[in-house]
Each structure stands twice: as structure tokens, then as C-alpha cells.
Design goal:
14 helices; transmembrane helix; ABC-2_transporter-like; membrane
Length: 282
């Protein structure tokens, strides 16, 4: 088995190009990945619409319960739909751009990580566009629920049009937060190799929990979803201001700083984890 020294040697050959060159290469890699996924167009579109239908049906189950009982902890059906859609769209942005971060385990197990190390580009940059996903089903589902929720609250006079650009900002910062959580979780794989069970907790379970108001949960769990795994900053915290007028517009600055802070920490953790990677020798 190769040692860390060999891994470091491979990393030393990384070439640094101007930012414009990186962007051009990134777009080229994404185009190549999309062409590959579109080889079977019927399968792609059918799978996308089925995925959207299944996920919309998932929200409809929640809507039926809310319609029967009226509200959850004071949150009405449109507000819960808003939380649901913001989380869905933020996760869709993250998984569209950096889907393979979530699937790093297969690179570590199969030895494909070694191939990324031999390329004259940073490993993370090379990993991001691999098997780029359009995720049409998730976009349709999230967009439908978002539009329906916003429309319902506008008709009732609860919010105005300013909520739309505010929500777009929240979706983008939310995608950064979810990416940061995913990257930090994936980095642990440099020590453990297997990370799928951990990802189920840090990404899937936490994201599902945050689709509902955090006020539903015990204080210790709500605190963890705000400060340890900050999924509550993706939708719940901004929704308190956008939908209910709590706190103030400064909350957007807090969310932006949190997104930058968690992204910086996760990138540094990734860089440190790379120094601990041991090649499979394949």
C-alpha cells in the first residue's frame, strides 16, 4: 500500500491556473457530464417527472395532516410549505453543483480518488463536476411547493413581493451551508473510509427534520440543528423574519456570515483531511 508521502507527492504536481481558466474548465466538465446523462433522454425525463411526483406526494401527505388539524405549533400549511420548499431547493442547488461530494465514499473504496490526485487540478475542483446532475424532478417539486406557498401567503396579505428575492438569497446561502455540512462529513471519510451511515445522520436526517419548524423539537435538538449542524439557518431562521417579521433584516447578514464561516471551516478541514489520505495503490 502506498503511504501518505506518495499522496503528498501527487498533490505537489497540482497546477494553479487563473480563475477564468478554472471557470472555463469547470463549465467544460459540466457540459461533458450533462451530455453523458442525456444519452437516454426518455429515461432521464421519465425518471425526473416520477421523482417530482413522488416528492410532491410526500408533501401532500403533510398538507393533508395540516388541513385536518389547522396548524403545527402555530405554523400554517403555507408556512410549512415554505420551509419544505426552501430546504428542498437549497439541497437541489447543492447536489446539482457538488453531487459527488456526497458520494465520496465510492471514490475512497474503489481507488478512483487516486486518479483524481494525478490530474493537474485541485482534487475538490475536479470532483465537483463529476456526474453533474440536472435534478429536474427536485426542481419541479421544490419550485411547485415554493410558488404555491408564496402565492397563498401573498393572497392573505402575510407577505409582499419582497419575499421572493429574499427567498432566493436564502436558497443560495442555504446551498452553501448544506454543501459545507456535506463536505465536512465527506472529509471524515479520509479516516474512516465508510461514511454513508454518518451522511444519513448529518445530511438526510438533519435536512428532513429542518423541513418542519424547529420549535417542534426539544431545545437540545433545536440547538444542535442551529449551531452544530446548522440546517436551521437554511430555512427556519430566515423564515421567522420573512414570514413573521421577527428580529430584523440584519438576519440576512448573520446568515451570510454563517455560510461563509462554515464554508471556510469545511474547506480547511478538507485540506487537512487530504493530508491524511492513504492511497489504495490501485
Amino acid at each position: 500500500m502506498n503511504t501518505n508521502t506518495e499522496t503528498h507527492s501527487s498533490q505537489k504536481h497540482t497546477t494553479f491556473y487563473p480563475l477564468r481558466t478554472y471557470l472555463e474548465l469547470y463549465v467544460l466538465l459540466i457540459r461533458t457530464s450533462i451530455k453523458s446523462s442525456m444519452q437516454y433522454k426518455l429515461n432521464f425525463f421519465l425518471g425526473s417527472f416520477l421523482a417530482a411526483f413522488i416528492q410532491i406526494a410526500e408533501f401532500l401527505m403533510i398538507a393533508i395532516v395540516l388541513h385536518r388539524f389547522g396548524a403545527i405549533q402555530g405554523w400554517n400549511i403555507y408556512e410549512v410549505g415554505y420551509l419544505f420548499s426552501i430546504m428542498t431547493l437549497s439541497k437541489t442547488v447543492y447536489r446539482s453543483i457538488a453531487n459527488e461530494v456526497h458520494h465520496l465514499e465510492k471514490y475512497l473504496v474503489s481507488g478512483d480518488m487516486d486518479q483524481l490526485l494525478t490530474r493537474p487540478l485541485p482534487v475538490l475542483f475536479t470532483l465537483l463536476p463529476q456526474r453533474f446532475r440536472i435534478m429536474l424532478g427536485e426542481w419541479l417539486q421544490g419550485g411547485f411547493v415554493f410558488g404555491w406557498s408564496i402565492h397563498g401567503m401573498m393572497n392573505s396579505g402575510q407577505i409582499g413581493w419582497i419575499a421572493v428575492p429574499q427567498s432566493l438569497f436564502v436558497i443560495l446561502t442555504g446551498a452553501v451551508l448544506l454543501f459545507s455540512i456535506g463536505l465536512a462529513t465527506a472529509t471524515i471519510g479520509f479516516w474512516t473510509t465508510r461514511i454513508s451511515e454518518l451522511q444519513t445522520f448529518t445530511e438526510d436526517a438533519a435536512g428532513t427534520a429542518a423541513r418542519f419548524p424547529l420549535s417542534l423539537y426539544p431545545k437540545w435538538l433545536a440547538g444542535m440543528l442551529l449551531f452544530v449542524l446548522p440546517v436551521g439557518l437554511v430555512n427556519y431562521v430566515p423564515a421567522l423574519y420573512i414570514l413573521r417579521g421577527e428580529w430584523g433584516p440584519w438576519i440576512f447578514l448573520i446568515i451570510l456570515l454563517a455560510a461563509i464561516g462554515f464554508l471556510t471551516l469545511s474547506l480547511r478541514f478538507w485540506k487537512f483531511g487530504m493530508t491524511k489520505y492513504q492511497s489504495t495503490g490501485s
